[in-house]
Write the structure tokens for this entry.
Amino acid sequence: MDQRLISISRTRKTWKNATRNVMVSPLRLFFPETPEDIAHIIRDAETNHLCVRAVGSGHSFSPVAISHDYLLNMRNLRKVHQIDKSSLKPEARAHPDFERYYVKAEAGITVKELNRQLDNMGLALRNMGAVNFQTVSGALSTATHGSGIAQPAFPDMVRSLYVAGADGKFFQIEPADGITDPGKFSSERGEQLIQDDDIFYSVLVSFGAMGIIYAVNFEVVPEFLIKEMREMTDWNTLKQQLISGHFIEKVVRKYEYVSFRVNPYAVNGRHLCAVVKQEILPGKPKLSLNSRFKNLKSSIFGNIPLLPTFLIWYLNIRPKAAIKSIDGFLEGTKDKVFIGKSHRTLYQSGTNIKRHGISSEFAFPVDPEKIVEIIEKIFVQAEKNIRDGNLYQTSHIPVRFVQASKAYLSTAYGRETAYIDIPLLQKTIGDYEILDRYQDIIISEGGIPHWGKINNRLYSKHDITRKNFPELTKWQKVRRQLDPRDTFINAFIEKTGLLKDPGSTV
Ligand SMILES: Cc1cc2nc3c(=O)[nH]c(=O)nc-3n(C[C@H](O)[C@H](O)[C@H](O)COP(=O)(O)OP(=O)(O)OC[C@H]3O[C@@H](n4cnc5c(N)ncnc54)[C@H](O)[C@@H]3O)c2cc1C
């Protein structure tokens, strides 16, 4: 290995994900500083028949990010700037009714830092997940989503991907009708421009299995404010509103970002629910003092470092307390009204969750009856867990709504999607076993597990992957084309059946 690669790498290092349930000691952990470093690492790996993989912030609970050979920490690649529109097609520069904006963000920048820099430019992401700890490339690679039935998830805000692939070659990948005018294309480092739907929509959500993304062009929007309202209700009322169609048509489709949370346990015969409605405010309204601060109680409790450790200890000796504490939490997050910058309002968490929260999450079509059926199956299982093993779940169930995605392996591919999440506090007794039971029930009901969350029940059930992703064959073909020597695969890709020939029954 040459001196440059030695100088940007370490050996005998153990990499752990944020929740520390996934760890690996790769042959070498690299900290590339330029795309050329990445190309160099890829060529070295190919010469030595080794695999290469980039990690983001390690915020996937599944082992999607690990490699036993070469692992690339992308933290040194985090610059962001607006792109020069002179090489774009006229329709990409401006819509008849509005200006269009794009930024090129290096792969290792976190969503938090990107938001900060966009803010300085007077711009913003249209949507994001509930937290901002992920890197942009990690977030799009597992199809990270927030909520908003007409709003894009991460992959669907991407217009071009910059990828270092087999042989260390550089590509700029866009859909067939991509924003770049091929006649005006000038590459910074010899990138080949590919404008092809199958390649773009395959690479968008590919868990690092088609090369190392070193930068991403996002379409962004002028900065905007969101008004958030949280209302408390109960499951019976919400269930009726779901079944009558009122909730989807008059709430989910009316406000830009809507989600709800429900206590899986009934307290005094009632499952408490909190409905979060967020609407984009036009212009720059004046903010009253009490609308400027996000719910103070949840902000403080969500960020006190030792609180979850104490809570986990307490809930392990008094497990029944979980039932009422979920109601208490939901009540505590109630805001009168909060008005804030988009990224502050869409952020729905505290820093505590990143070390202590784990979850399994499932995608369904937006079918109110199905949503009701699954939520009520979760209620039944939550009670059964108590009866069978005195096991208690430690969080509410969030439900979010997302626009159909064009990315072939997005869990929202081709349909408006409802995501039903089952978060837990890690290290409460029965944590992973509870998630195993829910996975069995919900996968058998057609729920598609989130790639980055706890999804171990997917391993070896390859028919599920095949059934859920109609464009899997195209994805596999593109993968073979871009990675002919299998340099970018890992055990997760194999275990989930993504490499298998769709005709195979194994
Ligand atoms: C507290 C918490 C809250 C969460 N909230 C949400 C949520 O609201 N919505 C949601 O959908 N998900 C959520 N998730 C899941 C999380 O967004 C995803 O798992 C996301 O992929 C993590 O991003 P990361 O940067 O940590 O990437 P990692 O977990 O480090 O990596 C994810 C995948 O991306 C690949 N990858 C990373 N960088 C590159 C690159 N440069 N080139 C090629 N491949 C790359 C990795 O190899 C891996 O396959 C949450 C997770 C946590 C811990």
About this structure: The chain has two domains: 80-222, 225-457.
